Amino acid sequence: MKKFYDLTKNDELVQVLLKKRRVTVFVPSNEAFSRARQFAPEDEERLASYHIVSMVVTRDLFPDSIYAVSQENPPLYFSVKEQPGNGEKEYFVNNAKLLEDRDYNVDDGKQKLYIIDEVLEPYRSTENLPPDAWELLSNPSLYNIREELSAMASRVRKEEQVDTFTKVGNHTYFIPIGEENGPTGSRIRDVDSNVIKGHVISHYVLFTRTAGNEGYISNNPRVEIKFVNQSNSFDSETIFVRSNTFQENQAHHKGVVLSKIVRANIPLRNGVVHLIEHPLMIIDISVWDFIQSKGDKKLSEYMQLVKEASPDFDFNIRNAVEKTVFVPTNEAIQEVEPEKLEMLKANKTELTNLLRLHMTQKAISTDDVWRHGRHYEIITADNQRTMYFRAVGNYKNKSLTVEAGGVNASVVEADIGATNGIIHVIDRVLGLPYQTIMEKLSSDPDLRFGLIIMF
């Protein structure tokens, strides 16, 4: 805690508070400081006071929000996250996790000290009070933010949604960066009032570490928002926000849109903002274009199979007719016996029929299956065989499995929206059995009871 102690020595107000007053101090560990960015001198001068509140904050006060002693900074937001499985609770102030706490006594009464694992980012307004979401959106220089937000600000004004960003309370906002004439300008020009509402979650302040894996219904009741962590080849994580439009209308297709968070966890007077790479909900890519965009990564094996199939299948997957395509990952295709795969490639008709088994002529999302009672079936694109779906989990954290041709697969990337349908990425190749009868009985929940009876 030496780094934080050194900061307190340069602040006379903090010295008085620590020696005499009832306060709570959130002290970043030395490791937290080693991971933090380099602060400008004017931010470092006020850093200690942003970590102190003029009252004793106990864990039973979480969740809540309290201003630090430095009033030009935004509130500190407290939250509790329950660990799935064991039910243990984790406590956070903004995006920092509480590691341990200690109690002290002074003339005025008790003091509380919490050690935290992140430095609280000292966003400090250039005016007297911290901004609300609209003030930040329309004038990001208030926080010395250099990302361009003018395109989204223009759309919010034009669609008369300023009140959404000025409303009092604790909310979460996602703001796409970009200028109207910039690379993402065409997408932002498609933003209407329904899309704007899909970028706001009311009554929840969600930092990236406190949001968890569950989905939250946005101010657009047809759109669910969820945070997604994706690892890259360097074993680090990139955080995305995912919108899932589960009911479409004439203006908006159903399906998932992922947008990378480029600047996270900006606290405000009325919640928190995350700046994102491009707008949510705006679907402007076809099924085939999406597959091609992943073709040099995890879907290249599937792309190669499509190239070796009949030309009519290539036409079907590219045309504008509504469809759902289940795309096996490279790993799934590589699990197929090499001899069997080579035989398939040598028989264009068989290969084409196998690919048709992975397609239906209707856009089907996880929510569609859930609303049908968690089970759903439909004829595949070969017009002969049937595909069976099952939604598992609970409504806030549901997943999808699919079975066709005697093979059950789990959807590992669900509900990817396209202009002509939906893509689901799956972990098995349908129609090419890989299990023995015993393995099938023991792994399929619908057949497990029969296995118990047998034995």
Characterize the structure shown.
A hairpin with a 6-residue loop joins strand 4 and strand 5. This protein is 28% helix and 30% strand. 41% of the residues are buried.
Q: Secondary structure elements and their pairing?
A:
Elements: H1 2-8, H2 12-20, E1 24-28, H3 30-35, H4 41-50, E2 52-53, E3 64-66, E4 76-82, E5 89-93, E6 96-106, E7 109-116, H5 133-138, H6 150-158, H7 162-166, E8 171-176, H8 185-189, H9 193-197, E9 200-201, E10 216-217, E11 223-231, E12 237-245, E13 255-268, E14 271-276, H10 287-293, H11 300-308, H12 311-318, E15 323-328, H13 330-334, H14 338-346, H15 348-356, E16 359-360, H16 366-371, E17 375-379, E18 386-394, E19 397-404, E20 407-418, E21 421-426, H17 437-443, H18 448-454
